[in-house]
Amino acid sequence: MSTVHIAITEHVAEITLNRPDALNALRIEDLEALQSCLIEARDNPDVRVVLLTGTGNRAFCVGADLKATLPPPASFAEAYLLSTDVSAHNGLYPRLMDLSRLKLWKPIIAAVNGHCLGGGLEIALQCDLRVASGTASFGLPEVVVGSIPAVGGIQHLLRGIPSAIAMRMLMTGERIGAEEAQRIGLVSDIHAPDDLMTNARALANRIARNAPLAVQMVKKLAVDSANLPMREAVSLSEIGWGVLRDTEDRIEGRKAFAEKRSPVYRGR
């Protein structure tokens, strides 16, 4: 039975990590299933937004299943030059947590219910928006077990919140609660546990009502221009604007505004 589920409703693909008894910890087969679900959402033209969550109120995801990801017989050197899929079975399973290689420009929302730790937080940090229940907690405790965040957790955290707070979390392995996460900008919204998914779905649907090509271009520009000098970033934005200028959706948006009606976007 798959431990990662996908359900598509009204342009939103809801992906659920489903190992609640293990706090939604991820084995290699779970990571492969997650990648498959994300690829399905990426390649389905009806999907405009991805909503990622975990089953139950105890945990969003606590990262890799430490019992199932012990060091393999293969050396690091042997695995390093292998493909992602093959190397994952030879000890480099963190590669399967790297969402950037999927080139998924549709927005991803993480709905965090409970513990969001280690690789779980590294996955959430790669999402475009994070909303949380009031009982959520966040941390990168890898140093406590003799390791480090291996999927950009260090860099993503430093970019997402003030550096002093990020370094404290990284070096101590300490967790923070939902209110602190919102205060420092790690999450945008907090909801009661029973209301989390209702509000997360409402957010996803609100984004899905917008022009999908425009939303995806915003994400692509945000990623591609993150490290560019402002002059180059603005130039890249001009290209993005030009790509969208003559699309059916942009024309529809202006017609709908003039006619005082809701636009009907088709992703064209």
From TrEMBL:
Q: Does the keyword Lyase apply?
A: yes
Identify the InterPro entries for this entry. Answer: ClpP/crotonase-like_dom_sf (IPR029045), Enoyl-CoA_hyd/isom_CS (IPR018376), Enoyl-CoA_hydra/iso (IPR001753), Enoyl-CoA_hydra_C (IPR014748)
Coiled-coil stretches: none
Any one Gene Ontology MF annotation carried by this entry is: isomerase activity
Biological process (GO), any one: fatty acid beta-oxidation
The lineage's top-level taxon is: Bacteria
Q: Supply the PANTHER family for this chain.
A: ENOYL-COA HYDRATASE, MITOCHONDRIAL, ENOYL-COA HYDRATASE-RELATED
Q: What is the protein's name according to its record? A: Enoyl-CoA hydratase/isomerase family protein
What species is this protein from? Answer: Azospirillum oryzae
